[in-house]
Design a protein that fits this description.
6-stranded mixed sheet; mainly alpha; 516 residues; 61% helix
Length: 516
């Protein structure tokens, strides 16, 4: 389907809008922080994985396998220039490309849906910003490339359903999506099933075999390393829903947790409107319209049950954007009334998403690079430049990247031992981190007491607190407790902290405890 002549500019407008929002976030964040920094410590988990992979270990510590990354592919994209500033900028590079590409494809979807006039311009230009395409890229995570791959699948599937063939780039995107994030498997397999039913058997087989084969192959690789078949980061996050609960109970808890969040409610309402519209309009249940709606709708349902919503608004935008794109495309083929309903749903969804995402994104998350710089970056400097010994943490990434010494992750993303203790069939007892620290020669621990006070062993000595004096942003805590894991080491650790304290930036304060 072709829109009016002005629709030929939609891809450019969408790309410029997405990049404009992205650059605005980066500029404001850098102004707050005074340096370039990512808003999540998690970015450095991927960088640390890539760094150690370049040295021969799939993990965050040399010689110890671990699956700290929730993405199969993303660490491989960060392999060049390990341990250098150039490597640190790779997440920024990939996300600039992803944001630009997603804005461009969003414009192509709008053109294919026949959008025109003021409504078309608003959807094309405001969509990438209000639906958080820009904000997803700002996080520096794999969610940005995954959103791009998902949107390509929607567009490619629509073209295939309308007799334009199953393009190679559709197959490539559908295979790549679950390698970026496991949630992509639902959309890829649903697209493969639809292509099969519509006679595109070769493309369907390539997608199904490629996506499933890669995911299964990766699980076999993890098992070969002695790890669980799913990444430790995924197991740690899903285990946190109910550590001692069964699978079905966790799925129920996860569904409820998603639905009570604003973005989860938006996704559920958009899905309900699509289903209700299809129920009232037979044209929306037949042909390409029905196929695209059913395919992406199934992926949306799967995300509500198996995926997550929230934490810097990065998990769910891909499926909201994909479902909204499918609604617009389906409506355009089902008649003028369905098209108007789809466009109205798009405008309403964008407005709701702006309310759900905007205040925290611009009011809190633009401060996160500053918070990461004042806390995790300073922890990393101390661990790598002053301590130079094994250390335990609950925020793994910044401390682990470029660190030749052992880093024990008591949260459990980078340590299968810690995760199995935390989320085992029996709740761990007080002081459970003590034996782990002793086994790995850990000399110091830098943790949030709010989260892990019960993990502190009786023999640990608290020697200092690192505080952010002007809290702005979103961190697990604004105070990091620093412990010596052996009383005999407390004096030396305190001396190293005393030497480190004068080098801290403004608004990062180190308070020594238990000594001069």
């Amino acid at each position: 389907m072709r829109g009016p002549a002005s629709a030929s500019r939609y891809p450019l407008w969408g790309m410029l809008a997405a990049l404009g929002g992205f650059l605005a976030l980066q500029a404001v964040a850098a102004w707050h922080a005074g340096v370039f920094e990512y808003p999540l410590d998690d970015v450095y988990i991927h960088l640390a994985m890539a760094e150690k992979m370049a040295q021969g270990t799939y993990g965050v510590n040399l010689g110890e396998p671990a699956s700290a990354s929730s993405s199969i592919l993303y660490p491989f994209l960060l392999l060049p220039f390990p341990g250098t500033e150039a490597q640190r900028l790779l997440p920024l590079f990939w996300n600039i490309l992803a944001v630009a590409g997603a804005g461009w494809v969003w414009g192509l979807v709008a053109a294919a849906a026949g959008l025109a006039g003021a409504v078309g311009m608003v959807i094309v230009i405001a969509g990438p910003v209000f639906l958080n395409i820009s904000g997803v890229g700002y996080t520096g995570m794999e969610a940005g490339p995954h959103l791009l791959a998902s949107l390509i699948v929607v567009l490619g599937l629509w073209r295939a359903l309308n007799g334009q063939g199953a393009a190679w780039w559709l197959v490539a995107a559908a295979v790549t999506a679950p390698l970026l994030r496991y949630e992509g498997l639902a959309l890829s397999l649903a697209a493969a099933a639809t292509l099969w039913l519509w006679g595109h058997r070769s493309a369907a087989g390539l997608i199904a075999c490629g996506a499933l084969g890669a995911v299964i192959g990766f699980s076999l690789f993890l098992l070969h390393l002695g790890l669980d078949p799913l990444p430790g980061s995924i197991l740690a996050k899903t285990g946190g829903l109910d550590p001692q609960g069964g699978l079905w109970f966790r799925l129920l808890v996860g569904l409820i947790a998603n639905l009570v969040k604003p973005a989860g409610a938006i996704l559920a309402l958009l899905l309900a409107v699509l289903v209700a519209t299809a129920g009232a309009m037979p044209a929306l249940r037949r042909g390409p319209a029905g196929a695209i709606a059913a395919t992406v709708g199934a992926a949306a349902v799967a995300h509500l049950f198996f995926g997550q919503v929230g934490w810097m608004h990065r998990y769910e935008p891909y499926v909201i954007v994909s479902l909204l794109g499918a609604f617009l495309l389906a409506g355009s083929a089902a008649g003028p009334r369905a098209a108007r309903i789809g466009q109205g749903a798009a405008l309403a969804t964008m407005a709701a998403a702006a309310v759900a995402y905007g205040p925290t994104l611009w009011g809190a998350y633009v401060w996160n690079p500053r918070a990461i710089h004042l806390q995790q970056a300073q922890m990393a400097r101390f661990a790598q430049d002053y301590l130079k010994e094994p250390v335990a943490v609950n925020d793994l990434g910044r401390v682990a990247w470029r660190n030749p010494d052992y880093v024990l992750d008591i949260w459990g993303l980078g340590s299968a031992e810690a995760r199995r203790i935390r989320f085992g069939p029996v709740a761990p007892g007080d002081g459970w981190a003590g034996p782990l620290a002793a086994a790995h020669g850990v000399k110091a621990a830098m943790i949030y007491d709010k989260w892990f006070a019960a993990a502190v062993a009786p023999g640990w000595v608290r020697v200092a607190t690192l505080s952010v004096t002007r809290p702005k942003g979103a961190l697990g805590d604004w105070k990091v407790a620093i412990y010596a894991t052996d009383r005999a080491e407390a004096s030396e650790l305190r001396n190293r902290l005393a030497a480190f304290a004068p080098t801290l930036p403004d608004e990062a304060l180190l308070t020594l405890e238990g000594g001069a």
